[in-house]
Design goal:
The protein has about 400 residues and is mainly alpha-helical. It has one domain: Glycosyltransferase. The protein is built from 16 helices and six strands. Bound molecules: 2-acetamido-2-deoxy-beta-D-glucopyranose (10 copies).
């Protein structure tokens, strides 16, 4: 009863007042609550139906960003509305994902709601959530694999993508720690997925960046004959992988898994260094295709840029990037400023914030050519971008106001 009232309130004219009174956006550094309430007012991150496959990843990133927000500002007066919205998003996913066999009709993105389901189960003890995340966990065992045990991202035989790691790895780690702690092969399998992508997708020329994915059978039109790698470093896919590393470092206890933690940490540091070197010197943010800076048609993309800013800021906050803190803070805060100046749109009509410049889906079920990646449509208000922006904003605020 209360929830619809809150939502009606959010989309009505007092929304502007709520935003002004709760998120203190007068100082433009605190955009997280404002953007979250705007996402809610657009009704994003909630599955409209069980066939709404493309919304599954949108739900997952919305839940993860909002969960962080509620943790960071537990006493803000928008927190209750945001917490209720997390529940609404998780509830929309719980039914559709509960059957492990049927889960295979979704891409690996289905797993992005796993942590939200576990959190609500811990909070309420409601078995609907347990059934759903158990279904997701069992679907990993049923998922097709290549001969090296690499999980297929979706129905395409033997293809694995960086994208899937954000959905798989933090869930795999969280589930195993909480419910299957003695299952060493689960952690080994999780590490193997990251490792196969790290090995196959390493850009050939020592930039330290990773290309979008690989075909283990090397038969795709785009596949490198030796590694199976696709040709380009796509910002958002590398963003998903980088966020998977930094989020899993937080979830996986260093004490119980020292060698795994050390390897994830070393790789996160290597990627952070590669990202620092790949940042565009003029704007301070990152290209749609990081391996083709300045080439005609290429552009600075807003979802990948927000993901990298978030990962670097969080890496600094949690002490993972202890070597070179000032440099990483500078890179990330400069990127964040470019994002807010360029992509964040203050809609003075209804008081919401918009988010521009996010590329729509880029699939390897394509030529995977330069022209393909730079020719995909650019969306306004894609929650894949605005959700990452909420995450970046939360860490930006901490770094900025750290005593
Ligand atoms: C939020 O809290 C502030 C004071 O902390 C109050 O002035 C304001 O009215 C509250 N806003 C809403 C929408 O409850
Ligand atoms: C940012 O917004 C939150 C939620 O309204 C608030 O609790 C917090 O104090 C704000 N932080 C800053 C630095 O303004
Ligand atoms: C799960 O889905 C599969 C495939 O769609 C179906 O055959 C099976 O009956 C479902 N199981 C349950 C318990 O609904
Ligand atoms: C458990 O959660 C589901 C989904 O929100 C809800 O439909 C159901 O009524 C809840 N069950 C109980 C016992 O609260
Ligand atoms: C342990 O994890 C592995 C790898 O995911 C899985 O195949 C196996 O079923 C799990 N064992 C148990 C008892 O859940
Ligand atoms: C680096 O490698 C990527 C992908 O393997 C390629 O697209 C790019 O052109 C290379 N850059 C340079 C400077 O050689
Ligand atoms: C997957 O790769 C293996 C080994 O490269 C190959 O034998 C198999 O035919 C491929 N699977 C499909 C469905 O193409
Ligand atoms: C601003 O808000 C109005 C009213 O909700 C909406 O019609 C319009 O599309 C929004 N414009 C932008 C640029 O977001
Ligand atoms: C989004 O960006 C495009 C390209 O720069 C621009 O044409 C469009 O007006 C922008 N949309 C909004 C709502 O600012
Ligand atoms: C892959 O691309 C082909 C050609 O565009 C299309 O017909 C097919 O539906 C795509 N497959 C999936 C699963 O989207």
């Amino acid at each position: 009863m209360w929830l619809p009232a809150v939502l009606a309130f959010l989309v009505s004219s007092p929304f502007l007042e709520l935003v002004q009174s709760t998120s203190v956006p007068a100082h433009a550094s605190n955009y997280s609550t404002w953007m979250a309430l705007s996402i809610i007012s657009r009704n994003q991150g909630v599955l409209a139906s069980s066939s709404d496959i493309s919304a599954i990843l949108q739900a997952g990133i919305t839940q993860k960003a909002f969960t962080r927000l509620v943790k960071q500002y537990p006493h803000a007066n928008s927190t209750e509305a945001i917490a209720q919205y997390i529940k609404r998003s998780v509830d929309s996913v719980a039914g559709p994902v509960s059957n492990a066999t049927k889960d295979l009709t979704y891409a690996m993105d289905r797993l992005s709601s796993g942590n939200g389901l576990i959190d609500l189960y811990k909070e309420t003890g409601n078995d609907t959530y347990r059934t759903a995340f158990t279904g997701l966990r069992n679907s990993i065992n049923l998922n097709s694999r290549n001969v090296e045990d690499g999980l297929w991202y979706f129905v395409y035989p033997n293809w694995s993508y960086l994208d899937g790691m954000y959905s798989l790895v933090p869930f795999y780690a969280y589930y195993t720690i909480l419910f299957d702690a003695r299952n060493a092969s689960a952690i080994a399998d999780m590490m193997r997925q990251l490792d196969l992508l790290w090995t196959h997708c390493a850009a050939a020329n020592g930039t330290g960046l990773l290309v979008h994915g690989y075909d283990d059978s090397k038969t795709a039109v785009w596949a490198d004959p030796v590694t199976g790698a696709s040709p380009h470093v796509w910002g958002r896919s590398l963003g998903w992988y980088t966020m998977a590393l930094v989020d899993t470092l937080e979830i996986l206890p260093r004490q119980t898994h020292p060698s795994e933690w050390a390897l994830l940490h070393a790789r996160f540091c290597q990627l952070a260094d590669a990202l620092r070197r790949a940042v565009d010197a003029t704007s301070g943010a990152w290209w749609q295709l990081l391996d083709q800076p300045g080439r005609a048609g290429n552009y600075i993309e807003s979802s990948g840029s927000a993901m990298f800013a978030y990962a670097l800021l969080k890496g600094v906050r949690l002490g993972y990037l202890e070597n070179g803190v000032p440099a990483y803070t500078d890179v990330a805060t400069r990127a964040y400023k470019y994002i807010t100046d360029t992509f964040v749109v203050d809609n003075s009509t209804d008081g919401t914030l918009g988010y521009n410049g996010t590329v729509s889906v880029c699939s390897l079920n394509s030529t995977a050519s330069y022209e393909y990646y730079v020719g995909q449509p650019i969306n306004y208000n894609s929650v894949l971008g605005s959700g990452a922006f909420v995450l970046a904003s939360l860490d930006r605020c901490i770094v900025l106001y750290r005593p």
